[in-house]
Amino acid sequence: MVNIKCHREKIDVNSRLLILFPVLLLLSPFSFSAAADQSGACSAFVDVSVVPVDREQVLLHQTVLVRNGRIVEVAPVLDLKLPNDCHRIDGRHRYLIPGLVDSHIHLPLSGTADQLLVLQLLLANGITTGINMEGSPEIVALRDQIERGAIVAPKLYTTGPFIQQPAFMTADQVRNEVIAEKKAGYDFIKVHGELTQAAYDAVFETARAQGMRVVGHVPSNLGINAALGRQALIVHAEEFLYSYFQFHRDLPTDSAEIERMVSGISKKALLSGTWVSPTLSVFRQIIFQAADIDALLQRPEMRYMPRRLTTGAAVGATDFGWYPPDNPYVKRWPPEKIPHLRAQYFVMQRLVKGLQQAGVPLLAGTDPFVPCVIPGFSMKDELEQMYEAGLTPYQVLQTATSNAARFLGSDNDSGTILRGKIADLVLLNANPLIDVDNIFRQEGVMLRGLWFTEDELQTRLATAVSVSTASVHP
Length: 474
Ligand SMILES: [Zn+2]
Hints:
Elements lengths: L12 H15 L14 E9 L8 E9 L2 E7 L9 E5 L4 E4 L1 E6 L6 H13 L2 E6 L4 H12 L6 E9 L7 H14 L3 E4 L5 H14 L2 E4 L16 E2 L3 H8 L9 H18 L2 E2 L3 H18 L30 H5 L5 H21 L18 H13 L3 H7 L2 H7 L16 E4 L13 E6 L2 E4 H17 L4
Parallel strand pairs: 1-4, 1-5, 6-7, 7-8, 8-9, 9-10, 10-11, 11-12
Antiparallel strand pairs: 1-2, 2-3, 5-13, 13-14, 14-15
Helix pairs in contact: 2-14, 4-5, 6-10, 7-10, 8-10, 10-11
């Protein structure tokens, strides 16, 4: 069985490098640093309900004081006198959660204007950190600019380019690549698709020596046991279909058998220490594309996706067009195949619930630029699908906040609302522990202490769309 999502043909990276830097200079006056004059200032969410996510609780009537980009105090509103210089944000009847992390994004490689649009889409949806799952030198440079504060945008991590066939067939090729990726400054090694046993072994041996973690797909020729305990993260629940549930056999359909298999692999996964990012919504969306592509292309949020970004070329995947006749899923999956895809999805849902029940840490990842997956907006779909699979709203919220910080090794700095943490925060007008959709009833987002109201986010988004649309591309 072939992985239904990720067949990608590469386009030339060098041709993109040429266009990036002139565009960057052109755009530097662009207002992505509009809120920079707040830096160093003091802000306070006053009388807010805090969902700290270090425990399942809502702390009522709190003041959260932020200075120099960090949370300096969380205390009952009556106990805390506001400093005079502090910008006051009304928290009454509102809920404060940590900024969200999308653990599986893809930034376009078609120039800075497009990258800034995607980053703005993330921010406007409460996402303050993203893990880019296919890196390039431009994205390392962008990550570093954000880190330095030259661009105000969600914090980035990035894997290197895919380690996959046919570019990487031998252990030697893999060794050289892992060493080169470490040198180039990537945060993770990404494996993708099938690999020979020798090449796959060489990934881990070299990555360990280089102090890097390996994330990605599971080579479906080798099976799930080859990956557990070695990959830090498996980036799709779908990988378990090909490397486990359907590994040298048909998809199980008997529900007792599915439950037995789920329970067995969940226990194994827990003991192995490997994390899972289910990316349920992208698979579900592929079923929708096969069923009714027009409905997806007519969603209101499609107005944020300039047509050029929907051809696949912008993310280096020429066979990833969104619109028919280029949409690969419409081509590949005639309506009579939909019941099979639904049966696969049912197994993935059972798996996600089983992994959660066993205690395997899960991450919310969305895989934008797979056709019809819109960056930022895709987070709402993913959190809804994890809830539908059987996680509680609190468990869902953890996958996008505290779990992600633990995975990234940044839990001293982020993922929860506690004194000393970086002030990446989202203000909501409804309780996220009652309904996961409330996570997207947003009043504003704070990014490293910079406060953006919902109106400001929408204005910035509209600007980013028009700059991207007007920008010149090769
Ligand atoms: Zn991906």
